[in-house]
């Protein structure tokens, strides 16, 4: 594959503020792709999500340009600016919350969603319009290429593959979905026409990848239940309009070398000094986007129960929660942030003293501060209700220096790999979570060391280079007509 690899996703590796300053894109997708895009000859096509991105795109005549990311790495990025109203409908109504909520079982179905013209039009004139804009950029980038390969990312771009395939039947399309794939019935929330367009959009790919075997199984079952297609569950193949679509699981690893390099930075040491100065005897940590799926409220409720049931820990422990505000134009997210702040105030008021604040809430996105905290926690809480992978569950144990214990929701993708060495919890069972906090804090030194070593070994066994190589090996195998194997 001597031609540049074309990657396309909604969020790009960097984002520009109005003043021209650049920051790294947030979330697991960017973490996954940055290594790949900076090490190989690749063009990364992404939506212009801010005014600053649009300005950059205009300055480069809408073509790809080179970007130095603040955390290192050079990328060829092509920002695609969509009509602002279409983009708002795409991002704030259809992709988030509609698809995101379906794919994390977040709808409280007796109350929401109501599908009205507003939502249907958001799909037709928002979601599809933005997918069309990005598809056009893809088609321009692969123009003149023989046997082009395009790697499409995530739930924001389900209808793009069919648009590209219609113009370039020879293209090889590989689509990786970074979030869970839920069971068939959760998709019945969508009107049949929209559902069909989404599934047929995705099935225009040659290969569809997920983080886990269970998401892969759910997707295959959906193709049977909702589209009545012929499916080979064993080999992971869907037969669609005489084409074979391979469905695969590629669990995403972290770039452990890069994360270790961040842990050695001076900026991280400065944060460490501050936090060690203020540290109590025990430290619990969580680091997340402020997303409903992360289950932040139940995490604080469990801590509240723990403090109630174990008063001997009063004044000796802090629960630090570093949460990055996210998707704040979506009403459900704005409301969630308010509920988080209110609950923190209640728990701190109930248990705190004039010189002890049990929960330290930090609403900001600061990688160095997060990594400094990773190094010194005794307990890390990852209690997401459902989560595609959860890279924090891998990054924390990698750099932690205290044999910290991981509490890990059984509904995260990471649990398939790390469950054996974590304290597994049902994310809805707050008493179990409170008990897990207690078990983690009172675990023997040998127990902690054994688990910490197990986690470190797993998270250093593969890196994103391996992840991408596995996908490229499948692309090659399918392109030369090999039969699918499980
Ligand atoms: O990894 C899942 C994901 O939704 C990505 O698609 C996305 O870029 C990231 O999390 C963060 O979300 P957003 O781009 O909406 O801020």
User: What is the number of beta strands?
Assistant: 18
Helix amount, in percent? 40-55%
The residue-averaged pLDDT reads 96
Sheet having the most strands: 10 strands, mixed
Structural class: alpha/beta
Cofactors, ions and other ligands in the entry: 6-O-phosphono-beta-D-fructofuranose
Task: Work out the radius of gyration.
Answer: 23 Å
Low-pLDDT residue spans: none
Measured between the Cα atoms of the first and last residue, the distance is 25 Å
- Put simply, the count of helices is 17
Shape: globular
Please give the order of strands in the largest beta sheet.
Answer: 5-6-4-1-7-8-9-12-11-10
Strand content: 15-25%
How would you describe the overall organization of this protein?
This protein is an alpha/beta fold and about 475 residues long. It has helices spanning about 30-40, 50-60, 85-100, 115-140, 160-165, 190-200, 215-225, 255-265, 265-280, 295-310, 330-350, 365-375, 390-400, 415-420, 430-440, 445-460, 465-480; strands at about 5-10, 15, 20-25, 40-45, 65-70, 75-80, 150-155, 170-175, 205-210, 230, 235-240, 245-250, 280-290, 315-325, 360, 380, 405-410, 425. It has a ten-stranded mixed β-sheet, sandwiched between helices. A hairpin with a 2-residue loop joins strand 11 and strand 12. The model has no long low-confidence stretch (mean pLDDT about 95). The protein binds 6-O-phosphono-beta-D-fructofuranose. 6-O-phosphono-beta-D-fructofuranose binds near residues 11, 27, 154, 178 and 327.
């Amino acid at each position: 594959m001597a031609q540049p690899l074309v990657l396309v996703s909604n969020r790009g590796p960097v984002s520009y503020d109005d003043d021209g300053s650049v920051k790294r894109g947030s979330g697991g997708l960017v973490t996954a792709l940055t290594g790949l895009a900076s090490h190989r000859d690749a063009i990364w096509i992404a939506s212009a999500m801010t005014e600053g991105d649009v300005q950059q795109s205009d300055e480069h005549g809408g073509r790809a340009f080179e970007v130095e990311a603040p955390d290192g790495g050079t990328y060829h990025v092509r920002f695609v600016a969509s009509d602002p109203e279409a983009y708002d409908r795409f991002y704030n109504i259809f992709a988030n919350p509609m698809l995101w909520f379906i794919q994390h079982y977040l709808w409280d179905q007796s109350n929401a969603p109501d599908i009205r013209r507003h939502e249907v039009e958001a799909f037709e004139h928002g979601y599809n319009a933005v997918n069309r804009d990005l598809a056009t950029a893809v088609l321009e980038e692969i123009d003149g290429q023989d046997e082009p390969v395009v790697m499409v990312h995530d739930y924001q771009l389900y209808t793009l593959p069919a648009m590209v395939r219609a113009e370039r039947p020879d293209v090889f399309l590989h689509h990786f979905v970074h979030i869970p794939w839920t069971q068939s019935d959760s998709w019945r929330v969508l009107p049949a026409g929209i559902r069909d367009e989404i599934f047929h959009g995705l099935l225009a790919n040659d290969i569809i990848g997920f983080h886990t075997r269970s998401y892969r199984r759910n997707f295959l079952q959906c193709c049977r239940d909702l589209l009545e297609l012929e499916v080979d569950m064993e080999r992971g193949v869907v037969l669609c309009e005489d084409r074979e679509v391979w469905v695969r699981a590629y669990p995403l690893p972290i770039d452990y070398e890069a994360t270790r390099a961040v842990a050695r930075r001076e900026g991280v040491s400065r944060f460490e000094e501050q936090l060690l100065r203020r540290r109590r005897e025990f430290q619990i940590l969580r680091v997340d986007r402020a997303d409903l799926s992360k289950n932040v409220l139940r995490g604080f409720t469990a801590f509240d129960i723990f403090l109630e049931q174990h008063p001997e820990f009063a004044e000796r422990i802090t629960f630090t929660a570093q949460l990055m505000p996210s998707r704040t134009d979506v009403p459900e997210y704005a409301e969630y942030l308010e509920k988080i702040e209110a609950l923190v105030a209640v728990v701190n008021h109930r248990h705190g003293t004039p010189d002890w604040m049990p929960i330290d809430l930090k609403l900001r996105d600061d990688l160095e501060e997060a990594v400094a905290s990773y190094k010194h926690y005794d307990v890390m809480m990852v209690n997401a209700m459902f989560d595609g992978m959860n890279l924090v569950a891998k990054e924390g144990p990698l750099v932690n220096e205290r044999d910290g214990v991981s509490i890990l929701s059984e509904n995260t993708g990471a649990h398939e790999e790390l469950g054996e060495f974590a304290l597994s919890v049902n994310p809805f069972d707050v008493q179990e979570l409170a008990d897990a906090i207690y078990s983690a804090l009172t675990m023997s030194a040998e127990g902690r060391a054994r688990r910490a070593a197990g986690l470190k070994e797993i998270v250093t066994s593969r890196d994103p280079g391996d992840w991408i190589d596995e996908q490229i090996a499948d692309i090659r195998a399918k392109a030369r007509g090999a039969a699918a194997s499980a």
